[in-house]
C-alpha cells in the first residue's frame, strides 16, 4: 500500500519522517514528481514530496544569494533571477525533453542530483553554488548545514555530502545558493570540419588562452543537423562560447579566432543564436528523440573522451556528442546499454564515471545506472548512510544495487 | 596567553607503551622517517597558533602513501592518536599534537607528480607547497587559483584540510572548487582514490566532504588540482571613502552591476594607518575606509571594467581614486594590504579573527566589532575580503599582560559570536581547530553537531585522527577519546 505524503510545513515533514522511521516504513523522496525512473528502481512503501514546501524565502541581488524552499519550481527561481539580471552559474539541464517526462523540476531536485550544464567545467557544479541547506535526516531531526556565506569552514561540509545524494541521506526542505550576474553579451565561435581528435586538441588550445571560454563542445556530423534547426555550417561543429561585458567578448573573440583560424574554417553565432545553441546542448537535444534508446552520460578527462568513443565504436552501435571540452560524453546506444563494455573501456583510458540516464524499464532492471564503486568506498558510503538514515528509510536501493 | 583551551587526557595505555611504539615504528619505516628525541620533537609541538604547545610522542615523516598506510594501520590497531601535519601554518591550532599522538608530517612528500596542460590538471604529493604549483606551471601560462597569504609555506594537504582561500577567491573559488581528486589513507590503513582528472564523481561527494575536514577523516597523500590559464593582465584600483557604509554600498553596487572583480579588499582607518606607517604605499590617511578592487583581462577589458567601477565609486562619494598606471604602482597598492599582518605585529601583539558575514551585514558588524573591542579597552584593526564577507579583525593587545591577553581572547569570542548572530559563521578560512572548538555550539544546535560527529565516526570510529580538534570535548559519544 503506497502512501503519498505532501507536507506543507517543515515540522510536519519531520513528524512524517519520524513516524516512518519508527515504523521502518521506507519513503521514496521526490521533488516535482518527474519521477519516471532515473537511477535504480526504488521500492518504497510511501512517497514523500517536497511540492508543498515552495517559495523563495529570501533574495538579495546585491549579495548574489537566494534562499528557497526545496519544492520551488526551478522556473520560478529562474524568472526571479532573470528579473534581476542574474542566473544559476552551473546552468542546470532540463531533463524533460530527453527523458520524455512532464512535471515541474524543483530547485531541491536540482541540488539533490547535483545537476549541472555546459558551464560546469569552468564555473563549478550545482554543489559549488550551494551554500547551505535545511534538511531532515532519517531520524526526523530538522537540521542545517552550511549557511548563507560563500566562505565557511566551520565543521564538516555536509552541504557537499547532501548535494548529489539523490535523496538517500536526507530530505531537503530549504536550499541557499549563490547566483551570478547574467553576462551582458555572448557569442559562439564555430570551427567546422574537425574530426573528434582534432576538435579535442582545438578545445584544449582554446582553454589554454586567457579568453575565458565558458562553453566548449564538439558536435560530430551525425548530430550537427539536430541543433539550431540544421543551420550550423556543413561538417562537424566545434563550438566555443564567450560571455561577459560586450567589450570583453569582442576582444576575446578576436584573439580566439586569430589563434585558431589555421585549424579550420571559422564562423560565429550572435548572442541570440548562441543562447539557443547552448540551451540545446544543455538539454541534450539530439537525443530528445522520443525513444527510450539507452543514453549514457560519461565524465572522463577532457582529452580521453574521443579515445573512449573511438574504442567503443569498433564494438557497439553508438551516436555521441561532447561537452565540457571533450570530457562529457552524451552517448546514445543503438540497442543494448552495453554497460559493461562502456565501463571497461572507460577504465582502460584512465577512468571516470558513467551514468545510464535513460533506458527502458527492462534494461534498467539489469543495468547499473550509477558507476559501481570500489569496495572500500562502498563500505564507507554504507557507514555514512547509516549515520544519516539509520533505519534506511530514504530511497532504498536508489544509488547502490542490492 | 591564558590556558582556557583544554586538551583531552592523554591515553595512559599509549603513554605507557611509548618505547614499544617507537621501536615498532622504527621497524616499519626507514630510519630517516622517524623522529623521537625530545629535542627533535620541539619544532612539531605547535603551529602558527603558538599560544598552545604539546610535545608529541613521536613524529613520522613518510616518503610515500604506503608508509602512511602502514603507520595508520599500526596506530589503528593499538589505539594511538594521529595528527596530520603539513607546514604547520594553521592559525587555529589544527596541527598541534598531544603527548600521546604520532604526528604524521607530509613535508617529505613534496613532488609534483604530473602536470597535464591539455587537461589543465596537476597531480602532486600532499606536502607540495601551494605556491610551487603556480611557480611550476607559470611559464606555460597557467596558475593554481586558491592563494592563501601563507602560500609560500603552506602545503596542498593543509589547504585541502582547511579548504583554504585567498584574496582572489571571489572569482575563482576556494580549494574545494579547484580540487579534482585525492588519494587518501583512512585511519585503518585503507587507501582510497576519490575523483581524478574527470569532473564530479560517482556516489556521494566524499571529495567535497574531505575538503575542509581538518584532518578528521583521513590523511591526504596526493591531490589532483585544476589549473587555469593566466589572465592577460591584472590591475588594481584603490578607493578611499569617508565612511565604511559608503565603501560597503559601493561593493554591493559593483556586484549588482554584474561585474565580478577578482578581488575586493577592505581596510578600516586603524588598518590603513598601521599599513601605511609600515609599507609607505601612499594610502590616503584622511579617509575612513579603503577598498582595493582588482580586475583582470586584456587592456581593453580592464579599461572598460575600471571605468564602470570608478563610476560607481563616484556615486558613493569616493574621496580618493588611484588607478595604477604601471606594474610598480600596482605592486605598491597591494604592498600595503599584503603587509597588514606583519605591520600590525610590529606595533602590538594581535589575534587575527576569521569570521564571515553576509555582505548586507558588513557595516553593522564593523560598527559592533569596534564597540566590542572598545568595551574591553582594546583596539581593533579590520582588513578583509569584502567580496565574500570574510572578516579579519585584528585585536591588538599586549601579550605580556595576562589580563589584557584574556580580554583579547574574550573580545575575539564575542566578535565571532556576533558574526554568527548576523547570519555568518565562525570561520571562513582558518578553520576551527582547537581555537574555535568550544564555540561550535554557538553556530550549531546539539543535533546538528551530533550529525557531523556521526559522519566523522563513519571514517574513524575510535576518534584517533586529530582527536581534540573541531568538535567540543563534551558531548562526544562515550567511546570517543576514551583512554
Ligand atoms: C543526466 C540526468 C538525468 C536525469 N534524469 C532524471 C529522470 O529521468 N527522472 C528524474 O526524476 N530525475 C532525473 N534527473 C534529475 C533531474 O534532472 C533534476 O534533478 C530535476 O531537478 C528533477 O527535479 P524534480 O524536482 O523533478 O526531482 P525528482 O525527479 O522528483 O527527484 C530527483 C532526485 O532528487 C531527489 N530529491 C528530490 N527532491 C528532494 C528533496 N527535497 N530532498 C532530498 N532529495 C530530493 C529524489 O529522491 C530523486 O533521487 C536527472 C538528472 C541528470 C543529471
Ligand atoms: C601568515 C599566515 C597567513 C595565512 N593566510 C591564510 C589565508 O589567506 N587563507 C587561508 O585560508 N589560510 C591562511 N592561513 C592559514 C594556513 O596557512 C592554512 O590553513 C593552510 O592551509 C595550512 O596549511 P599547512 O600545510 O601549514 O597545514 P598545517 O598547519 O600543518 O595543518 C593544518 C590542518 O590540516 C591538517 N592536515 C595537514 N596536512 C594534511 C593532510 N595531508 N591530510 C589531512 N590533514 C592534513 C592538520 O591536521 C591540521 O588540522 C595563514 C596562515 C599564516 C601563518
From TrEMBL, chain A:
This is Glycolate oxidase FAD binding subunit. The keyword Transmembrane helix does not apply. It comes from Rhizobium rhizoryzae. Transmembrane segments: none annotated. One of its GO terms (molecular function) is catalytic activity. Pfam families: FAD_binding_4 (PF01565). It comes from the Bacteria. PANTHER family: D-LACTATE DEHYDROGENASE, GLYCOLATE OXIDASE SUBUNIT GLCE. Keywords: FAD, Flavoprotein. Residues 1-182 form the FAD-binding PCMH-type domain. The keyword Flavoprotein applies.
Automatic annotation (TrEMBL), chain B:
It comes from the Bacteria. The keyword RNA-binding does not apply. GO terms for molecular function: (S)-2-hydroxy-acid oxidase activity; FAD binding. Pfam families: FAD-oxidase_C (PF02913), FAD_binding_4 (PF01565). InterPro entries: FAD-bd_oxidored_4_C (IPR004113), FAD-bd_PCMH (IPR016166), FAD-bd_PCMH-like_sf (IPR036318), FAD-bd_PCMH_sub2 (IPR016169), FAD-linked_Oxase-like_C (IPR016164), FAD-linked_OxidoTrans_Type4 (IPR051914), Oxid_FAD_bind_N (IPR006094), Vanillyl_alc_oxidase_C-sub2 (IPR016171). Residues 52-230 form the FAD-binding PCMH-type domain. Its EC number is 1.1.3.15. Gene3D superfamilies: 3.30.465.10, 3.30.70.2740, Vanillyl-alcohol Oxidase, Chain A, domain 4. Its cofactor is FAD. Keywords: FAD, Flavoprotein, Oxidoreductase. The keyword Flavoprotein applies. This is Glycolate oxidase. It comes from Rhizobium rhizoryzae. The lineage of its organism: Bacteria, Pseudomonadati, Pseudomonadota, Alphaproteobacteria, Hyphomicrobiales.
